Task: inverse folding
């Protein structure tokens, strides 16, 4: 009779080397009705009690070891086969993905207004809007731009026939409307569409957008304005963006300044198609609200001071994405729009 | 405006080189750039030619060796005039020449060239030039080329703000430099000649003329101007005419005061009358054109007719010619607004009107007439006969009290008192200390300074905005913000539609008549001065704009186009905010799976309606039958959107007869945003415990009259759901309309009903009983029967 230990070793080796087809026959060979171990157990009666006990327990032991090993082997074979099956179902990821709708897009100009609004909201500003068809008073007179002033010629105005009305040339009327509605303190931005009767070219179009800003309170200073705008630029374009303030002139602010931002494409190194190698790009005009403007809305200019600013949205957007023609914004060609 | 660097130096002593001067001026609010020379190059140095040899392969090329003192370069050059020992401008690798021309390392016929020897043309010094530019043999080598031209002139292009008329001259710019650098500005020396007779031929009849100074100079010799004068004018962009006219123009660019010279002998009765035009007067101006003058326009006239449009342009008749002997020189101050109005009305603009419109300095008018008279007697050998100065107003200098505490209050940072006084004094402002304030007397040329804050700006500007300390932490306070729902409803529409593949568009608000008429739309606002016929009216709907965008994109080959826009529309009652979208073509974009499965639905009425349903933010919005559809909708395929009992929008397929040029159906919807301006429709959400028991599904098909709106059936189902029974939800999963099988005028709907009990698992019987109740109601209310 073979040594049970030897039988076990032999059986375990066979199980290890088996595959799905041979595993069952191995099981039969050792554990089946005529299996080697079964035979041993059957022949126990011919042994002495001592041997019966010893061989019986050895054989049973061997049996359970082999059963467990077969069970393990079965599991791992099953796992292997399932993995094989999945491997065969492999998809070509490079072509199969699909979403039924094509990619939608937001208009870059609207998105820029949203971004600007979000920044100013985070700095404590509320948002107001105003009409696009305006009166001479709101668009000019109240802003200290009398008819006699040459500044009027700078803003080629569209007039509406048969009415004493015009299309607003800037969002600054929003300042006046906001101040008429609210007593100071006031802190508001006014985004919107504006119109100028200009020949269109890569940098000019009859329609564009501005965001106007205004704050009036008892202790507002020019330094507050400069701090606000530098915060704004840093929040929108990153804190490594340099800006500079240049004295300028607007009828409705005094002192006035223009803000230039360092070109984000050439980082001031020059030779750049966007900033025309000047390395600075003018992004907004601002200043301290002119006392005549405060007077127009019956604010006490001895008690209150304020600042105002206005920025051109298209310009900033063109600058942000490297767009070189403003008219692209209004053509609405999907080949353009879907890029954003 | 062009300013000559060299001429500035006559007025004020400064060291800044042109480019630095330009940035300094820019920093004090006068936008400047150098338009010629000096800053045109980078990386060009002077170098000496050490060796010249013929190129082995090309006869016309030379192989040269050059040195800039620290390094030697081998250069291939084609210029015939190159010779040993010359000092030449060498553009090294990496150098940039005018026109953004960058010098690169090149291999010419197998030989390396480490740069280029430049010609005058390549350096932008001349229009045309032959050969390389050979510099003076004493020129040092290794010098940046701009240093070589230190002595030569540069021209600054300057943009002046509308309120700074005083800066429209060399003197004006010099004053700004003087203020910034704290230097005294010198004014040209004036020789007061032997006291001339008083002028008797002038009469000022309108107070639109504030000051009128005339000077009569006889015995002038009209001829070509000297070279220096022609040169200065040419650099300033002014053509030379003759010595007299050139002098008036020179004094204008020098001091800022426009002058005019008349040939006195051509004037009727040798009279000068400053008056407003009457009746229908005409004048042929110096530009040769005939101008009809309106009554009230200010003119300078002789006894018979106008001889000049005051401050704008002289008349041809009285102009200076070669044979002119006696001239009448005018230096005046005309009312700025009057000049502006006349200029605009006649559409006639000149260097003179440009300055008058912006206001002139009272004192400068006098300085200018003397300066011009001096120059004329010097250059054109005339003799001054008479001088007269007429005022219609009493001129007084502006006096402003400036409080020190106010400076800090406006600017937000402290400036020392001595610095304030220094800046103001160098701006030509007279100061008189009065305790906590100073009384400032503003010089005549600064008519832009009217109130205290104007002075504060001057202080900040000259001190420099870059000197202002920007604080790192700004204390913000918040003004109570009333964020209207508008932005959030639009935000909801936008975000969802983008997810469905829509693109947001932005159109200008102008349309032409045919674009309204195509859709039977009315239009209300006409632009008086449109940019073109296509932009004559303000849009009364977003539809024509979106339609235009649709057509464009279809023509570009797009098979699926879905666009939306929100913006103002202009209706009879005023402007309103609107939201619209258009969709066309395949709902889904092409995919091989769709081909495999033979599906690719087109945007149709149901899909469009589904999109609308899914973007509406709350259950307060309902879709109902459109009883009054706009004519641009297909009558059978349109619906309306209801919000709190009011119709706020409509949708549907565009009337095919209006859009017959498009092959498939176009879905369009529009929503009026105005009702949401001040309305909060955000849904208040109250959590409800959900049932843990399973849902039972039951599918039924019913037969209905085909003209019965499905929404009627829905209403019944919804009322059952609302009654709180076990029916919880439903969906429509099939519509069958084969009348041959169903019977004439019949339609069949297949519905999936969802049942659930919150307290127990439902039995078949529970569900069957409830289905029967629903079917009974459909039968009795709508004559809708179960289809077997």
Result:
């Amino acid at each position: 009779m073979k040594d049970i230990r030897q039988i076990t070793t032999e059986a375990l080796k066979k199980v290890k080397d088996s595959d799905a087809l041979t595993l069952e026959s191995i099981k039969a060979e050792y554990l089946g009705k005529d299996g080697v171990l079964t035979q041993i157990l059957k022949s126990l009666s011919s042994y002495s009690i001592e041997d019966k006990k010893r061989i019986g327990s050895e054989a049973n032991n061997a049996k359970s070891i082999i059963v467990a090993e077969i069970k393990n082997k079965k599991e791992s074979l099953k796992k292997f086969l399932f993995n094989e099956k999945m491997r065969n179902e492999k998809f070509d990821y490079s072509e199969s993905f699909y979403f039924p709708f094509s990619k939608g897009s937001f208009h870059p100009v609207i998105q820029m207004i949203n971004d600007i609004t979000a920044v100013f909201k985070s700095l404590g500003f509320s948002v107001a809007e105003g009409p696009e068809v305006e009166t001479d008073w709101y668009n000019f007179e109240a802003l200290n731009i009398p008819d006699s002033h040459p500044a009027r010629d700078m803003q080629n105005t569209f007039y509406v026939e048969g009415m004493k009305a015009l299309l607003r040339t800037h969002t600054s009327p929003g300042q006046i409307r906001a101040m008429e509605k609210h007593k100071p303190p006031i802190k508001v931005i006014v985004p919107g569409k504006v119109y100028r009767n200009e020949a269109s070219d890569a940098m000019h179009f009859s329609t564009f957008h501005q965001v106007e800003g205004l704050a009036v309170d008892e202790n507002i200073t020019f330094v507050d304005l400069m701090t606000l705008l530098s915060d704004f630029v840093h929040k929108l374009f990153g804190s490594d963006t340099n800006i500079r303030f240049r004295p300028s002139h607007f009828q409705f602010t005094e002192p006035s300044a223009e803000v230039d931002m360092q070109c984000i494409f050439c980082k001031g190194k020059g030779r750049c198609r966007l900033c025309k190698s000047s390395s600075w790009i003018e992004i907004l005009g601002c200043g301290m609200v002119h006392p005549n403007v405060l007077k127009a809305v019956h604010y006490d200019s001895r008690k209150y001071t304020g600042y105002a600013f206005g920025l051109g949205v298209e310009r900033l957007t063109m600058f942000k994405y490297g767009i070189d023609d403003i008219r692209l914004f209004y053509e609405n060609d999907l080949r353009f729009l879907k890029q954003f | 405006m062009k300013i000559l660097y060299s001429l500035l130096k006559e007025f004020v002593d400064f060291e800044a080189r042109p480019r630095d001067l330009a940035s300094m001026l820019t920093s004090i609010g006068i936008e400047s750039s150098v338009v010629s020379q000096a800053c045109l190059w980078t990386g060009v140095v002077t170098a000496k030619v050490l060796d010249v040899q013929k190129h082995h392969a090309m006869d016309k090329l030379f192989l040269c060796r050059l040195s800039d003192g620290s390094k030697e370069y081998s250069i291939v050059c084609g210029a015939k005039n190159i010779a040993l020992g010359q000092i030449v401008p060498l553009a090294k690798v990496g150098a940039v020449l005018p026109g953004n021309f960058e010098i690169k390392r090149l291999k010419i016929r197998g030989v390396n060239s480490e740069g280029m020897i430049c010609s005058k043309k390549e350096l932008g010094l001349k229009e045309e030039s032959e050969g390389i530019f050979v510099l003076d043999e004493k020129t040092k080598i290794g010098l940046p080329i701009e240093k070589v031209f230190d002595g030569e002139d540069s021209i600054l292009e300057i943009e002046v703000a509308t309120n700074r008329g005083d800066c429209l001259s060399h003197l004006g710019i010099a004053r700004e430099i003087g203020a910034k650098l704290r230097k005294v500005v010198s004014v040209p020396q004036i020789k007061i000649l032997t006291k001339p007779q008083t002028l008797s031929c002038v009469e000022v009849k309108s107070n639109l003329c504030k000051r009128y100074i005339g000077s009569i100079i006889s015995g002038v010799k009209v001829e070509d101007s000297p070279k220096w004068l022609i040169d200065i004018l040419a650099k300033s962009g002014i053509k030379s005419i003759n010595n007299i006219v050139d002098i008036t123009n020179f004094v204008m660019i020098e001091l800022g005061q426009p002058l005019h010279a008349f040939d006195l002998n051509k004037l009727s009765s040798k009279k000068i009358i400053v008056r407003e035009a009457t009746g229908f007067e005409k004048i042929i101006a110096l530009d040769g054109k005939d101008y009809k003058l309106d009554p009230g326009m200010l003119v300078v006239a002789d006894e018979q007719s106008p001889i000049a449009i005051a401050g704008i342009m002289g008349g041809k008749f009285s102009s200076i010619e070669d044979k002119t002997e006696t001239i009448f020189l005018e230096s005046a101050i005309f009312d700025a607004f009057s000049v502006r109005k006349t200029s605009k009305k006649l559409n006639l603009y000149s260097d003179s009107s440009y300055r008058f419109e912006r206001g002139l300095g009272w004192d400068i008018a006098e300085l200018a007439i003397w300066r011009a008279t001096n120059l004329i007697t010097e250059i054109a050998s005339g003799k001054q006969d008479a001088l007269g100065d007429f005022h219609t107003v009493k001129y007084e200098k502006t006096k402003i009290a400036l409080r020190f505490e106010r400076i800090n209050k406006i600017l937000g940072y402290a400036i020392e008192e001595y610095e304030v006084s220094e800046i103001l004094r160098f701006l030509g402002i007279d100061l008189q200390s009065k305790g906590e304030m100073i009384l400032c007397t503003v010089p005549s040329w600064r008519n832009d300074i009217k109130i205290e804050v104007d002075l504060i700006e001057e202080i900040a500007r000259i001190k420099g905005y870059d000197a202002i300390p920007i604080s790192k932490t700004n204390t913000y306070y918040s003004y109570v913000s009333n964020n209207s729902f508008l932005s959030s409803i639009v935000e909801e529409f936008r975000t969802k539609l983008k997810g469905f593949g829509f693109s947001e568009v932005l159109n200008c608000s102008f349309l032409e008549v045919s674009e309204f008429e195509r859709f039977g739309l009315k239009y209300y606002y006409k632009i008086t001065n449109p940019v073109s016929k296509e932009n004559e009216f303000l849009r009364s709907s977003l539809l024509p704009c979106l339609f235009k965008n649709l057509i464009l994109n279809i023509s570009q080959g797009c098979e699926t186009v879905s666009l939306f826009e929100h913006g103002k529309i202009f209706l009879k009652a005023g402007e309103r905010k609107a939201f619209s979208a258009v969709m066309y073509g395949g709902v889904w974009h092409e995919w091989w799976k769709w081909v495999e499965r033979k599906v690719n639905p087109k945007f149709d009425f149901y899909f469009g309606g589904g999109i609308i349903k899914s973007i509406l933010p709350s259950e307060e919005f309902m879709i109902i039958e459109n009883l009054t559809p706009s004519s641009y909708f297909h009558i059978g395929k349109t619906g309306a959107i209801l919000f709190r009992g009011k119709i706020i929008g409509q949708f549907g397929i565009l009337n095919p007869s209006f859009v017959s040029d498009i092959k498939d159906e176009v879905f369009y919807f529009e929503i009026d945003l105005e009702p949401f301006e001040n309305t909060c429709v955000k849904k208040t959400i109250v959590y409800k415990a959900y049932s843990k028991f399973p849902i039972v599904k039951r599918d039924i098909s019913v037969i209905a009259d085909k003209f019965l709106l499905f929404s009627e059936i829905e209403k019944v189902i919804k009322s059952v759901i609302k009654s709180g029974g076990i029916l919880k939800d439903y969906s429509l999963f099939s519509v069958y309309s084969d009348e041959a099988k169903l019977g004439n005028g019949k339609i069949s709907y297949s519905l999936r009903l969802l049942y659930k009990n919150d307290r127990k698992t439902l039995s078949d019987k529970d569900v069957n009983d409830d289905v029967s109740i629903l079917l009974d109601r459909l039968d009795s209310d709508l004559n809708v029967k179960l289809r077997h």
